[in-house]
Design brief:
By secondary structure, the protein is mostly beta strands. It is built from three helices and 13 strands, in the order E-E-H-E-E-E-H-E-H-E-E-E-E-E-E-E. It folds into two domains: 94 residues, RimM (Elongation Factor Tu (Ef-tu), domain 3, Beta Barrel), CATH 2.40.30; 69 residues, PRC-barrel domain (SH3 type barrels). Helix content is 10%, strand content 46%.
């Protein structure tokens, strides 16, 4: 069974040929440009999409085989973008593993609030001077959640879930 690494996210459609804007973490860009298949997480599953090509003039645009119109590309927008772990070169893997982030291992974990239930999947972990923050999409907008011992109640590595007690109103800032 293939292991997948989240390397970015699809954004809006682009142009009339079915292109999709692609946001990729810098350390994985070379790897993404070399693969011929990528995986989008749709309804909880990693679905394969064969890559026809890229346009990297201004922004990174990806073209998938058999997706030839903006309408056909719409269902592929705002999705987590994965490649197989075996397709990542050794230097990218080292950078991925040597992250100095205390909570870096929580990437792709799901955050659950004690009161609200499932909040969303951690898309990115960012380091700020005072603390680390998890970036995720909640109610169709990006939110930042502080990662610290005062808010984290439990981390279940087996199920990839982080149980937290979030301050009231944090998700609506």
């Amino acid at each position: 069974m293939d292991e997948y690494i989240r390397v970015g996210k699809t954004r809006k459609t682009h142009g009339i040929k079915g292109g999709v804007k692609l946001e990729v973490e810098d350390r994985f860009l070379e790897d993404v440009l070399k693969v011929d298949v990528a995986f989008l997480k749709i309804q909880g599953k990693h679905l394969p999409f064969f890559i026809e090509g890229f346009d990297y003039t201004n922004k990174l645009i990806i073209y998938f085989e058999e997706i030839e119109t903006p309408e056909a590309a719409v269902p592929l927008t705002s999705k987590d973008f994965f490649i197989r772990k075996k397709d990542i070169n050794e230097q990218s893997t080292i950078a991925f593993q040597d992250s100095n982030l205390q909570y870096g291992k929580l990437l792709d974990f799901e955050i659950y609030d004690q009161s609200l239930g499932r909040i969303g999947e951690i898309e990115k972990i960012m380091e700020f001077p005072q603390q680390e923050m998890a970036q995720l999409t909640y109610d169709a907008r990006e939110v930042l959640i502080p990662l610290n011992d005062q808010l984290i109640l439990e981390i279940d590595e087996k199920t990839k879930k982080v149980k937290m007690q979030l301050p009231e109103g944090l998700l609506h800032l």
